[in-house]
């Protein structure tokens, strides 16, 4: 029987955390432990969790360091082979862990699995995240498929650079591989990039074996407090992450990743940022990203238009 630790980083979300815990404790395939990493909450999170008095729940409070570090610390404290992640405002359907366990048993060589998800809340956009994938993504990176289950080949790494249907609350991985792959960046550690989990996903895609379940088994809450709600912040963070991933993979001796196939994903993000900063008359940030782009007549004229703007 596959055993799962669940890691939940949280910060001042006591009421929503209780909903999340209820969805985890209601799984048809029971998890073996739930680690709540309280990242310095000032609300009554500790009291609310203590009131549950549940033997599976381990509550750990730490100084505020950011969600990424809190999640990482929780993974390191996990006692079981597989670690499933869940954010403190998201929900699982009752069969989420059961289907991940089936997926792992179906593809025993995999070390990272993820499911499809829907969104709910004030700023939700997707009822079916996988269905929003571009056509080329849906047809180009599968090694094997069986009903809803898919095993991916090495092309997935490049596909994830432009479309990422993976969210922390949908995934699970082997703890030993997380550590072996250095799946959190020492150089980016602690930075509030807005897309920190992107690094972990890309590192597993470059070094590991990934499989997915196209059935929706997670519900991602989207509201004004979501860190991932800022597209601009995410895009800036993703550029740093992609560059750091390439540097780290080279350092680790992974030489099959081609920069020529990575660079376009950096360029389109820089281009989008340049247009955004132009629209907002943000000269400093426009110039910062402009000088990283190949020469472009449209941006060249926008640069000089900005120069004369009040």
From TrEMBL:
Residues 5-137 form the Glycosyltransferase 2-like domain. CDD domains: Glyco_tranf_GTA_type. InterPro entries: Glyco_trans_2-like (IPR001173), Glycosyltransf_2 (IPR050834), Nucleotide-diphossugar_trans (IPR029044). It comes from the Bacteria. This is Glycosyltransferase. It comes from Catenovulum adriaticum.
């Amino acid at each position: 029987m596959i055993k799962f630790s669940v890691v939940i980083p949280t910060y001042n979300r006591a009421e929503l955390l209780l909903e999340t815990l209820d969805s985890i404790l209601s799984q048809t395939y029971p998890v073996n432990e739930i680690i709540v990493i309280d990242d310095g909450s000032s609300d009554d999170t500790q009291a609310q969790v203590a009131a549950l008095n549940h033997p599976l729940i381990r509550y750990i409070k730490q100084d505020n360091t950011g969600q990424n570090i809190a999640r990482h610390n929780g993974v390191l404290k996990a006692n079981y082979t597989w670690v499933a992640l869940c954010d403190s405002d998201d929900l699982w359907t009752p069969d989420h862990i059961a289907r991940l366990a089936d997926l792992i048993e179906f593809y025993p060589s995999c070390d990272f699995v993820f499911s499809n998800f829907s969104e709910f809340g004030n700023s939700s956009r997707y009822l079916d995240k996988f269905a929003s994938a571009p056509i080329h993504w849906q047809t180009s990176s599968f090694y094997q498929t069986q009903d809803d289950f898919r095993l991916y080949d090495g092309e997935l790494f490049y596909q994830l650079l432009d479309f990422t249907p993976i969210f922390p609350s949908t995934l699970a991985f082997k703890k030993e591989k997380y550590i072996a792959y250095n799946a959190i960046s020492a150089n980016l550690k602690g930075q509030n990039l807005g897309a920190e989990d992107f690094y972990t996903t890309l590192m597993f895609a470059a070094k590991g074996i990934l499989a997915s379940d196209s059935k929706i088994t997670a519900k991602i809450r989207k509201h004004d407090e979501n860190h991932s709600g800022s597209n601009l912040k995410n895009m800036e963070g993703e550029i740093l992450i992609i560059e750091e991933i390439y540097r780290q993979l080279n350092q680790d001796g992974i030489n099959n990743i081609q920069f020529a196939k990575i660079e376009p994903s950096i360029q389109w993000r820089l281009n989008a940022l340049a247009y955004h900063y132009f629209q907002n008359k943000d000269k400093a940030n426009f110039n910062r990203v402009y000088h990283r782009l190949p020469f472009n007549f449209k941006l060249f004229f926008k640069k000089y238009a900005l120069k004369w703007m009040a």
